[in-house]
Amino acid sequence: MSSAEKSFPVSWDQFHRDARALAWRLSSQRAEWKAIVCITRGGLVPAAIIARELGTRLIETVCVASYHEYTSQGELKVLKEINPALLADGGEGILIVDDLTDTGKTAGIVRAMLPKAHFATVYAKPKGRPLVDTFITEVSQDTWIYFPWDLGLSFQAPIGKETAG
Ligand SMILES: O=P(O)(O)OC[C@H]1O[C@H](OP(=O)(O)OP(=O)(O)O)[C@H](O)[C@@H]1O
Ligand code: HPA
Ligand SMILES: [Mg+2]
After folding, report:
1. What is the number of helices (H) and of strands (E) in the chain?
2. Any domain includes 37
3. Which residues carry a binding-site annotation for GMP?
4. How far apart are the CA of 49 and the centre of ligand 3, in A?
5. Residue-wise pLDDT tens for the chain (165 aa)?
6. Where does the chain bind 5-phospho-alpha-D-ribose 1-diphosphate (predicted)?
7. Residue-range definition of the domain harbouring residue 116
């Protein structure tokens, strides 16, 4: 499925803990966020967890699509823009949330819409890292992160070979 050399599978439990850790970190940076802008679709899941932890009720989406067939990045398309009411004063006090930043292209496009907003992701790869203000875990650029909503239970072959007798 992926051409990346390494894989980093994330369970629901781990994702919940990492998203909650991100909420803890964000709570120490600002008492109250005016709104959360989540980058669909991946940002919807951490945004729900963070909004619950921080008590944020105003949630907006920006709909960006880039990866096709899961692992190759195509042209970035903004399918839905941010409500203009939130764009005033460059987005000061607004929290942008995504599941991860990889090349940083998605983050770059959304940052340009809200230059003063705070950008948070659960995971980051080195190329995207400079575009993110707060994240929890960094993985190498040649690692593909498998999110729990893309995974299912399946048989795993044993690590060692079976011995006769
Ligand atoms: O840093 P980048 O190289 O731009 O990649 C990161 C983006 O790619 C994925 O979204 P994708 O466009 O695949 O859509 P999805 O969230 O709907 O899965 C991921 O959720 C990030 O938004
Ligand atoms: O490592 C990744 N995992 C899942 N989706 C992604 N979109 C860009 N990079 C990734
Ligand atoms: Mg996404």
Report:
1. 3, 8
2. yes
3. 102-106, 144-145
4. 16
5. 456 799 999 999 999 999 999 999 999 999 999 999 999 999 999 999 999 999 999 999 999 988 665 556 678 999 999 999 999 999 999 999 999 999 999 999 999 999 999 999 999 999 999 999 999 999 999 999 999 999 999 998 998 988 877
6. 41-42, 98-106
7. 22-146
- Output the CA 52–ligand 1 centroid distance in Å: 23
Please tell me the total count of domains within the chain: 1
Q: Which two tokens stand for residue 164?
A: 């006769």
For a pocket test of ligand 2, which of 3, 8, 67 has the largest count of ligand atoms closer than 8 A to its C-beta?
A: 67
CATH of the domain at 122: 3.40.50.2020
Indicate whether 164 belongs to any domain.
Answer: no
- Closest protein CA for atom 3 of ligand 2: 145
